[in-house]
Amino acid sequence: MPVTVGVAKETAPGERRVAMVPEVVPRLTGPSGIGVEVLVESGAGTAAQFADGAYTEAGARIVDRTQLLADADAVLIVGPPDESLIGGMRPGQLLIGLLRPLSSPDLVKACAAGDLTAVSLDGLPRTLPRAQTMDALSSQASVAGYKAVLVAATAYGRYFPMLITAAGTARPAMVLVLGTGVAGLQAIGTARRLGASVSAYDVRPQTRGEVESLGATFIELTSVGSGAGEGGYARELTEDEQRAQQEELAGHIARHDIVITTAQVPGRKPPVLVTADVVGAMKAGSVIVDLAASPLGGNVEGSGAEQTTIAENGVTVIGAGNLPATVPAAASSAYARNITALLAHLMQDGALAIDLDDEITRGVLVTHGGQVVLPALADRPEE
Ligand code: NAD
Predict the structure, then answer these.
(1) Strand 351-352 and strand 347-348: pairing?
(2) How far is Cα 259 from Cα 272, in angstroms, rounded to an integer?
(3) How far away, in angstroms, is 264 Cα from ligand 1 center?
(4) Among candidates 143, 181, 99, 182, which has minimal Cα distance to 334?
(5) For the chain, which residues make up each domain, given as ranges?
(6) Among 133, 203, 260, 300, which is best to mutate for testing ligand 1, by the most ligand atoms less than 8 A from CB?
(7) Of 37, 74, 3, which is closest to residue 364 (Cα–Cα)?
(8) Catalytic residue among 16, 17, 55, 138, which?
């Protein structure tokens, strides 16, 4: 019997992505695929513009949720699922998605209690070359960086490019990108393609080369040294460093029309880069899009996910929510490739096999054999 994978319909509010797209189904089922059967929950792709019929034509079978959960060996999803999906799964079944285990303790407990093998793409050791095709954090961050620029351009009352017309000359928008990881670099590229004049800053000075290769100017701060941490990520700055950084950035921010913030430190609250005073010092009509905005706060003081505020001086601050879900077809296509690569990695001789000695598998495994195995969680004391 071939392994059967089931693609579940997302249920989170506003989530329009789907874990598998028709064009990638043949990589799973086809003669050159990995030899699995694919079930798709009816309507799973509708919000991403993929009709049930397109999946059928590609070689998948459309089923309802009950049958999906009964027949699938592995259930594929994008975001953390609702309780009813977990409750409907049976012991030994695999659940693969971007489960955000560090911020979803109840979900992790439920997966362990149900003896599910929960696998989360968030934990992938991303710098391993063989993991790159599976890197869903990067593929989705890239979509977010692209869309952040479009959101900013839509809220901005002027042009991005320089335009010389009979009715006058418009100067190009001055865009500043703070944080030049995957999302920030995509934001730089997108803003440049729209014709803006772009500057960028990151606490990891080694990003300068990438920034400059995209045609942007790298801003160097004299008051803060390198903030490079482990594994290619940034470290959390000390309070003094943070204050110095905010003060030195203030002048740069006030000179720009558009600011896109993407700064994150793994496992920590996002650093505040733009204080309320600095928002107050910006020109009327300026726009900030905070990609780091979350329930824990964001890079802009007081910003929150999916919250737009217009300050008294006419500056718009947009706390981005789930931006990849707003470009659902492209985000789902990339995600489907990532999850297919991971699924292939978790198979041996046509069967699902969890190899605890494998570095990638150890990174993504959250629960297995009724236990929480993700090191960051397994070591936490029981509440
Ligand atoms: P991220 O989302 O964790 O953070 C975004 C950016 O914010 C980072 O560049 C970080 O340095 C920056 N930042 C954090 N604190 C800051 C502060 N106080 N001020 C200014 N900037 C701050 O990062 P990410 O996009 O997930 O990627 C992080 C790194 O991992 C990058 O170097 C990326 O190239 C690397 N990466 C490598 C691979 C690979 O080798 N295949 C894959 C994915 C990511």
Answers:
(1) antiparallel
(2) 13
(3) 7
(4) 143
(5) 3-123+338-378, 140-321
(6) 203
(7) 74
(8) 138
Q: Do domains 3-123+338-378 and 140-321 have the same CATH topology?
A: yes
319 vs 291: CA distance, rounded Å = 7
Indicate the pTM of the whole model.
0.96
Domain 3-123+338-378, what architecture?
A: 3-Layer(aba) Sandwich (3.40)
Give residue 180's identity as a one-letter amino acid code. T
Divide the 383 residues of the chain into consecutive groups of 10 and give the mean pLDDT of each group. Answer: 96 97 95 91 98 98 98 98 95 97 93 98 94 98 98 98 96 98 98 98 96 98 91 92 97 98 92 97 98 94 94 96 97 98 95 95 96 80 48
Nearest CA to ligand 1 atom 32: 232
Can you give the pLDDT at residue 244? 96
* Ligand 1, atom 33: closest residue by C-alpha: 181
Q: Which ligand 1 atom sits nearest the alpha carbon of residue 271?
A: 18
Among 142, 177, 202, which is best to mutate for testing ligand 1, by the most ligand atoms less than 8 A from CB? 202
Tokens 């952040």 identify what position? 148
pLDDT at 383: 43
Residue of 61, 233, 235, 307 marked catalytic? 233
The order of strands in the sheet holding 316-319 is 217-218, 197-201, 174-178, 258-261, 287-290, 316-319, 307-310
Residue 147 confidence (pLDDT): 98
Pocket test for ligand 1, best of 121, 199, 233 (most atoms within 8 A of CB): 233
DSSP 280-347: HHSPTT-EEEETT-BTTB-SBTT--TTEEEE-TTS-EEEE---GGGGSHHHHHHHHHHHHHHHHHHTE
Does 138 participate in catalysis according to the annotation?
yes
CATH of domain 140-321: 3.40.50.720
